[in-house]
Every structure is written in C-alpha cells, then in structure tokens.
Amino acid sequence: MLLAAERQERILAAVRRHGMVRLADLVEQLGVTPVTVRRDVTLLADRGLVQRVHGGVALPHRTRTPPVRDGAPGAFGPMASQALVGMVVPSVEYYWPPVIQGAHTAVATARGRLVMRASRWDEPAEDRRQVSALLERGVRALLVAPATVGDSAMDLLRWLRSLTVPVVLVERRPPQELATLALDAVTTAHALGAGLAVRHLVTLGHHRIALITTRRSPTSRALRTGWRDAVDVLGLESHEGLDIEVPSYGSPGWPEAYTDVLKRCRALGVRALLVHSDREAIGLIEQGRELGVGVPDDLAVVTYDDEIGAASDPPLTAVRPQKHRLGVLAAELALAKAAEVGEERPVHRLELWPNVVVRGSCGAVAQPGTP
To answer: Is the pTM of this model over 0.70?
Structure first.
C-alpha cells in the first residue's frame, strides 16, 4: 500500500502531465477509495499545489478563471486591480512557501503581480533594505514579516507605519512597547495551537508533556507561551525542566542530543511530546527506535507544523497552521487598503486558528498510575 506522501506525489505528477485529472481516474490509478483521494487532494490544495475543480483537480495556474473587473471583491472589500504588490519574508524554504503561494493566488485573482524578496531571520537592517528596493519598484502595497524584537526592530516597525503605501504584517505583530502602532497584521494563533495540542494529549491521559523546540523564533516563543498557559489552566503538575531546546534535525550531533532528550523524558516519566517541527519529531522517533521506545505505544508525539507529518512512520498527529489561507487574506487586505488610498479604514488584526490533524503518532494513552 502506498504511503500518503507517495500517493500525493503521484497525484501531482498526473496533474502536471495532463493539466487536469478526474478524481475517478485517480481512484483507479492509485487503487484506493474515493475518500482517500479526496483527502489527499484536500491536503495538496491546502498547500497551494493544486486547485480543486468540479469532478477533478488541476494546477492553479492552468485553472481557467473568468476575467475580473477593477475593484474585484475580496474578504475586506473591493481590491485594487493590476497592482504590483511587494512581499518580504525571512525564508523561502521553511514554513513560508505556502504563505507566499496564498498571497500570489490572491494578487493574481485581482490581475496583479506579486514580487517577493527574501530577507533573513531577525535582521531589521536587511528587512528595511529589501522593503526599500520594493518601494523603488513602485509597489502599491506591501506584505512584510519583519523582525519585531529589539530597538532596531521597533525603529523598523515605526518606519513601516510611516510609508505611504499600505503595509500588512504577516505572522508578526508589533511588540507590547508599540501596542498602539497602527499596522495591520494577519497572524496564526500559535499559542492557541500549542494549547490545542496539550489538551488533546490530556484527553489521552497524559499529565506531563514536554515541549521540544529548535530555535528561538517567533513561533517557538508563542508555542512556549501557549504550552505554559495550558499547563497552568489545566492544573497539571509541575513542568519544570520540560521546556527543552534541541539542535535541528540533521545538524552535527543531533542523534546524541535527541537520545539524551528521550532518556531524560523516560527518567522523568514523560510519555508525551509537543515538538516544533516535523523534522525534529521524525528525528526523535528515529532515535526512539534505537532505544526501544515505540511511537505511539510508549510515547505520544504531536508535531507543530504539518509540512511532512503525513509521510512519517507512524504518521504524525499535527497542529497545522492555515498557511495558504493566511497568505490569501493578507494579500486581500493589502489590496483592499490599496483600493481606498486616502480613506480612513480601521486597523485589522486578523488571527487564524490552526487545526489539529489526528494521525497515528499520538495514540499512546497513559497507563493508570503513571505520570
């Protein structure tokens, strides 16, 4: 039987080859049920790789759409058409590709063009340089994921607020020091997502849940807040020492570090992990096998991200941010602002909830009498 990742790769290959493929044909080619095919297509569509059409699936750029007039409707009102929109993100590899694709979809719907620039994590000067380059290109609106920590970052945010083109922050909000800075933002409720994961594991009987992170990114900080808040609100026993940072999967020394984490958790009676992100969760599962720790029989694992969670062995239960949708909404908001230059519009702070996708890695139910 094909793994989900293999099925989805075959679906993509068929769509690339033919432009549009009927769902019934995919069922026959893959030898699976219609429900399985629809689930795979939904996952691919959520990532912005395909677009569902009546009775089938197609590549987004090959889907025929009716012409749109100036002022095409969006979630926030009529959108500026044929606009050049700039986007600055800290990475084009990890996390961001579906967000970029979502923004591209919204801008293309309004017959505009998205121009993307890559900056670097937590480097305000580089963020400003890339934004300035886009302004020189004549963009009518900006989508930016800037640094938000430190004096230089706050100066950058103040500068973004002073620009004459609409600016929408993506997966970022001004810090408390600039709580009243009138910048629009579209974000994921990462802290809430961590709380959803903790609550799911508690329903399985777990009372000690370690948080495993790899970097001090805005997402990791939010997950830590949500994890701690859920532990407090649910009245769980002390989680002191269970906020653990590890090297990235594949980096020097990762097997030894992951083995140490698993031994530490076993010594503390921890049988459930919330891991950021998929690669690190897969690495922990791999090292667990070396120690005789089975997932889900001995250890429940929930990942935060769900980029490749379905392809893990076992498939990873995951908290999935709605990245493509977030990109769409951020671009629609920016285009709506651009269509009403000079008019007073309220500041929008939109927050999308992630959702929990239950798979095989969290089936470990804590035994009576264990922590």
So the answer is: yes
The whole-number pLDDT of residue 342 equals 60
Amino acid at 82: Q
User: Could you read off the pLDDT of 256-278 as tens digits, one per residue?
Assistant: 999 999 999 999 999 999 999 99
Residue 166: partners with Cβ closer than 8 Å, 6 or more residues away:
140, 141, 142, 184, 334, 337, 338, 341
Structure tokens that stand for 269 in this block: 């009676």
Residues 186/350, Cβ–Cβ less than 8 Å:
yes
- Are 227 and 238 a contacting pair, CB within 8 Å? no
Asked if pLDDT for residue 61 goes beyond 60, the answer is no
How far is it, in rounded angstroms, from Cα 255 to Cα 259? 6
Say yes or no to pLDDT of 13 above 60.
Answer: yes
When pLDDT is cut at 50, 70 and 90, the band that residue 147 belongs to is very high
Dist CA 243 CA 257 (whole Å):
14
Q: 300 is written with which tokens?
A: 């429940």
Residues 6+ apart with CB under 8 A from 271: 206, 208, 265, 298, 299, 300, 364, 366, 370, 371
* DSSP summary character for residue 176: G
Q: How many CB atoms lie within 10 A of CB 137?
A: 11
